[in-house]
Amino acid sequence: MSHHIGLNREINQLKQLLVRTAKEHKYNFGHPHVLEISQQLDRLIVKVMRYTR
């Protein structure tokens, strides 16, 4: 269970980073930094989804 909580915390931190980074790059969602963070977030979300099945 604590692993799940840690993943959720990491997801929330990445969400905040994604919002800040997207804003810094004028919401250019194709910018490499924005894409990189978005992909990291996607991987964590998939991990949580697999964990909760």
From TrEMBL:
Q: List GO BP terms, alphabetically.
A: regulation of sporulation
**GO MF term set:** protein dimerization activity
User: Which SUPFAM superfamilies does this entry report, sorted A to Z?
Assistant: BAS1536-like
Annotated Gene3D superfamilies: Helix-loop-helix DNA-binding domain (4.10.280.10)
Annotated InterPro entries: HLH_DNA-bd_sf (IPR036638), Spo0E-like (IPR018540), Spo0E-like_sf (IPR037208)
Mind telling me what this protein is named? Aspartyl-phosphate phosphatase Spo0E family protein
Ranked from the top, the taxonomy reads:
Bacteria, Bacillati, Bacillota, Bacilli, Bacillales
